[in-house]
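[Solved] Which block belongs to which protein?

Original post:
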Amino acid sequence: MLTTVLARPQPVAAVPQSAVKVTDIDCLIEDTEQVACIRRGADVYVPFDYLKRRYELSGGLSEDGRQLHWYASYARLHRPSLPYSPYGAFLHFADYTVERRERVLRVSGRRGVPISRQWDPRGHEYVIQVAQYGLSHFSKASIETETRRRENSNGNNNNNDSDEDSDEFAATRSFGEAATDWTVPDGAQLTELTGNATARVSPPPPPAAQQQRHSTASLLRFNVPADLSRGARLKLARDSPTSSGRTVLRLVDFLSVSAASVTVQMTTNRRGTVRLHYGVGYAEDYRAPGDRSDIYFAIGSPGDGWRTVTRNLRVDLEKAFEDDDDDSEEVAAVGSVDIGAADEDESVAGVEDRQRRNRKSRGRGRGRGRSRRGTRRRPGRGRRRQRNNEGDGGGGNRNRPVAIRRVQWISLRGVGYLGRVEFATAAAARPDFYRAAGDWLVANQNASTGAWPIWARRAIGSRRDRRRLVLQPGWCSAMGQGQAISLLVRLHRHWPDRSDYLAAAVRGLAPFHRDAASDSTAGVAARLFNQFTWYEEYPVPGGLFVLNGFVYSLFGLYDLRQLLTDLTAKQNGSSSSSSQQLIDGASLHSHLANVSRLYSTGMESLKSVIGLFDHGDGTYYDLRHVTNPTEEPRRARWDYHGVHVTQLMALTTLEPDPRLLAALDRWEKYLNGYRVSHN
């Protein structure tokens, strides 16, 4: 039992250590709770586990058991490694791996973005998680690029004979470009097209697809009937292409003519031989009941045209194996039923546990190792949820590690075209990941309102609350708008020819002008004390005034303001009279003035009310107790408090206002146990 000193009266005279008597005593806490303690002479020791629970401490014994580590908080503080830039790493998001979070069911085969189970266990495409997925990969890529630049400038990359330059250690390795690399069964055809290969594609792809120029010198045309026992196979050498961290599969210049699919067979440390099937025409991503070896991902529909399919094999395996990691199949089956929205103060796991107890009390509990008959289990269903330290309530990364021991072969079925097969490191594939997130934002924005709707029911407050508010599916969030804009700004800067990224970012400003209480599907603006404008993460009547979501929206506005400032300066410096760029009929100058007003208004609100979020040894998550005195205050968990500190660290480099700097100084000290003085 870990103990710590509760009280240490000054002894009258020194007592030899050998003469100190140790006895068990009872500690009566507040005259209401009894705890087993230890008395050693004049000192009383209280169990550390009790203190952790009562005072929200963190820590424990060291590995050798000779030291006790005591922490006032469990928050992980993310200190920025580079100055904040709207074109570089986004805050601390390079530390995130969004696709491996507990609350991510899987990465969608069709869209290439995370499917979230936050607030809906069936899964939905959640704009905040999609934007964070893109921002995390973009941030990692930015830091990796900067690291290489510094190494090159320091002369650390002069050895061109290094093993790292060899094909074995290359970030990307290519396979299967020649027809002779493949073994084709009887009754199937595989033909290599060279020269102007695109012109020889038959039947020709849709007009939009024809405009997508392929990047490979040759193409393989395959026709493998579905009734054959095996497909056209590319057998890989025993030195697995996934060595040296190349766990990302890229199907370059892939075009389906009729139900084309690709299967990857590999051996793993978790389930022996496993096959991942990526096919056009599958209804959804799924795993057949009782089948632990075959996982299916739908990667599009006929007529999608040329594309490069990018899949992180390790992530796909982890999400598929999550179903098998729970002690009870009851939990794994929960993903197949609608448990409704969880209360804000009750985790989804708590709802599941309660429903499971109810089922068992009614005699309807299912045995272990069984799933509901006829139910296809989607990869990633059923994992227990827990809170995370990433400040978005998105679940941590506690999956047991999956290792790919060897990729044995890749096979083709159906009718289609393929340029080549690549295995790449996650770093080499990052542009595919953040491009997928940006393309999703363009495709899923409401063009008339500028909002990215969230298709999950959100309940605010527990069922015991008198003012329990519910956001019906289709609501929009200032945090979602802001982080989406931050990603689109970076992508447009990275690919200036993608004007659709810029246009979507500008349209995303519209909800900041609309009242949240009047229309939660199209507005995020609220008024605090009828004086300060606030951009609501949860647009409910009366307002919640969540701090971290509001600050994220300010970063989005700042990023777009800087991009439009740079584009306007470039346009003004052009000698061409036709260089005037319009977005939705308005000039860059007009959009710049718009976003500047929104940012300045929001920033002034933050500076004015930042003190309301301070409770003397931590911060409040929101201000619901201020706008509605019958509500209990909601203290920010330590992980959210850490996000508040990290946000202010970056924000004060842009806006060094004394009110923000004073708050940052106190809030950072709270993480180490500091408390403000009494009166």
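(Second protein starts here: sequence line, then its structure tokens.)
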Amino acid sequence: MRATLVRLFVVLIAFTAAGRGLSEEDNKEAKEDTDPIPDLLNAETFDSTLATGYHVVEFFSPYCPHCMHFKPTWEQFYRDNHRSLESENNLFLNQVDCISSGELCDREGIRYFPNIRFYSAGGKLLGNMGTNYARTAEGLGTFCDDQLSLWSGDEEESGSNGKSRGISSVDVTSLIDKKQLVRMLSGEGITKPMLISFWPSSDKQLKQEQFQGDHKSVDFFKNYPRCYSFRNLWNGAIKGLSQQISKDDISLGYFNCGSNPTLCDSLDIRNWDSQDQDNVVPQIMMILPSKDGGNRIVFNQPDSLTIQDISTWTKRLLDIYKFEDVKRDDIKKKMGIVSTLKSEPGDIPDYSEVSFVLLEDPETHVPEDDHVLRQLLQPIMDMRENVYLYRSTDKAAFLKLLKDQEMALENNYVNGKLDKESPDRAKFSEEMFAARTLSTLPMVICIKSNSLITPVLKSFSPRDTRNPTKVLNFIRENVSPVARPLTPRTMRTVFPHRLDATVADKSEKVLIALMDFKKPKDLPDVGYAISYIYHKFTYLKWKNQFSKLEKERNAKYSKVADLKEKDADYSDIMKTMSTKIPGVFEGMDNDLKIAYMDIERFEYFKERLGWGNIIPDSYKGGDFIVFSRFGNTFWDKDLNGEALNVGNSDSVVDVIAAASFAKLKGETISTPWFKMTLMTILAVVALVLGIRTIHKILRRRRLRANRVKGLGILGVDPDLQSSGLGKFE
């Protein structure tokens, strides 16, 4: 009876669980039924659906593997977001099947799948979801947010009747003819900077009245789809430059290379005459007002160009091209210059800006100094970093800033929670500060936002800072901010393909901080740890360099004393005294770069950067990994074998210092291909030899078995016993 009741109870539980599972499945299906994906658009419904509002449209093929992989992401994003997008932003999500609606996709110029586009009222194409957006729900959300922030609320973009009227705020781009451009390049007829885009079109293909035309009505845009996308990026960048345009700080134009091929070739406009019409992209150049000529600055644009790339580059150039005499407080307003830092966690600061200042003495200033700055302008603008270049005669204020920063660094910040009486506390060293900063003018200093570290290019004669190559190398050595995000764009800046010995050293390290952005409360601790590790290690590096300097000096003085004691020739003594001690503060030995990475993208970077022996699942947010920047070694344990994380920042510093100064052995990032090949060959050889050996052993056993088969107990065949033959004879 009891057993029967138990069986009934088990059956009841199983039935209830099955019912609950069925109910959950039914609820999911019911949710999908009540919130279905909208019908696909086709040639009959596309224009009427896009007549009003904003639309993000996915053009796909049901046979495309990427589309099939992206399908659940799109559907989940739709169900999670479409109501809020529709009610708050008048933005709708739609799809087009380019197999069943091939003519529509041809009309819209769809060349690849999936192709995700942003349209405004009347079907006006405003943007494409390029490769700079991840094909994830987060990437879709970011794309929608970016496009809405750029285009929504622009009353001029869409009329009350829902028809696109063009954007008058960007109708400031004028067609430049050959005569105008030649005059501007020679410094005539230009009173303010002009941003010019160079197009593969001819004057007939892209007239002034067609420049703001739709991709459906202008034949040139139909044949050159990336040029149309570029036109929308150009318009978006102009909106970002509205303040500069309203102040009359800049003018804008476009130039048709198709009607002026010789001039475009002489200006080295890349690929304007390429036969690959699907991939031709206009090039950008800024013409600056100058009577001396040589006044064009080329925009070295990335492959996946964004609106922000254009507007940020333009604003940066407008800010620095005049090289006006700036004061310390002027730069302080522009960027996060600090003379102290908080000794506790807080919001992650903006590290992005780096400024280089040429400090001059107005009494010794010569025109050659301005010439050096002009030579540096193009390479500075080629840099992807948010880097600026200024000149200043406010030398006293900047030198005071250097000393205040180093005193704050050594007396307070790097001491962390050490007791005030601790012998390990750092103290400001006047001698080390002088060795690092003492210089004649002009000199160059590097100011990094939210940092107490200010590198100095010391000058022992005016020739040092009037050498553009030397100054540029100093800039390239120190252009990295305190920390930067590790992204597909910054990946090869953080981890270059190869070592450039003119601006880097093989001993450099990279600290990767793993951040879990799903736990925002933990981020301030990681941000503070990044700053603390950077400043404390740099201080230890300075101490190490200063110790080397003192050792070199003492050796030199000792040698001079020995020569004097031996009554050596005066010329030998003077030669020894004039021996130059290497500038230990000028190199990149054991420099530290820091980047923070979203732990969700660990697998992506492992694959791209070849971290074969690193296991992402063994790390969590708040952990640190130290890499040899140009080697094959990493460290993820402290000196006691514990994981490096935000809770033991001093241990992270100790590991970096030991790896840099004491050659601490680390782990191998990945097994080199030649080593893997050799190991594979050896394994194959060993396997073949093993098989052959086993085969021989088995063969011998079979022969032995055959030979003794049928022998008697004594090993002799009874029939042969009388013959006198042996056992195997």
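Accepted answer:
You had them paired correctly. Confirming on the second one: Residues 293 and 495 are 38 Å apart (CA to CA).
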